[in-house]
């Protein structure tokens, strides 16, 4: 027989795994019943505590998700009963919960209802009434099952800051009376855009960390991928959802090739493409095909996925269809105009039609206020200037980019690039 400490450790690991898999469904199911996302999350946490107390002795139940849901429902009933001044609510909601929990307390709703509940939770956690930082934190907490400590470490901020964001987000949702529902009509597109923005922000922070000592944070990429795949299953008729999934799958396929032996960034054109994950590329292509089959004008995520697919199709850097990529960026600039898109277009044009053409586009962004502190603008200019043989100007741009970035490996790579352009004594 295993020692009690080892057994306890194994049960704790099982609870953590179950929580990661089931927490979104449990919170979503409870939110449908109590109509308050903040309260639903508290009730789910109560159920988790109960599991931590009971499972080491009783063992992990056959259906752990149903066990947690049943305990959460009972906690909801208890909470309502304690609110004596809301006895009419006890009559209206409490009895309904009790009947639903009933004798079959370890049964859960059908898969269709659970999926509907999770989709409602996604739209609620990503509601535009919340700040971007709050939406990201709440999504990772409620849909990803991450602790405040894990979220804080992922984004290099104090745990207290994350906890405060989550508390404020719940309060904001409650005070704004945000309904626990999937939006329909004109509001749906805007709300869906907010959801996709949050998921892609999480992915990008893992794909190219804005600060800290690591260039790539695989855990965040994986979490965003998981959320993207869930969304694709929950909203199969939305082309942009599949577009985002495709974009993340293809970009994630490069993970092993994006860092060198010491964790340094490896530029796209210098990556060993044999290290690219062909399974993820295949998944990305399949998601992009589903988006195209749905039809309609391509949205920003479908267009970005198409650009990523162009890179993935090239077995060697020189095989890249830069003219096609430049054309896609031109369309993207019309569909979702932004200075960052224009900067990426400058890179593509520089590769397709020469560095001089690319530099003209990059220079046109020099006075753009939103790019004033953006390190990739001088980095792109530095690369284009170097290809034009203007070494001193290029070195100055790489040094400027190094001063602007907050990521340590990227700063070193930029300084190394600047040093390589220094004139020999």
UniProtKB/TrEMBL annotation:
Residues 27-85 form the RNA polymerase sigma-70 region domain. It comes from the Bacteria. SUPFAM superfamilies: Sigma2 domain of RNA polymerase sigma factors, Sigma3 and sigma4 domains of RNA polymerase sigma factors. Residues 191-291 form the DUF6596 domain. Gene3D superfamilies: 1.10.1740.10, Winged helix-like DNA-binding domain superfamily/Winged helix DNA-binding domain. GO terms for biological process: DNA-templated transcription initiation; response to stress. It comes from Actinomadura rubrisoli. This is RNA polymerase sigma factor. Keywords: DNA-binding, Sigma factor, Transcription, Transcription regulation. GO terms for molecular function: DNA binding; sigma factor activity. Residues 123-173 form the RNA polymerase sigma factor 70 region 4 type domain. It holds the Pfam family Sigma70_r4_2. InterPro entries: DUF6596, RNA_pol_sigma-70_dom, RNA_pol_sigma70_ECF_CS, RNA_pol_sigma70_r2, RNA_pol_sigma70_r4_t2, RNA_pol_sigma_r2, RNA_pol_sigma_r3/r4-like, WH-like_DNA-bd_sf.
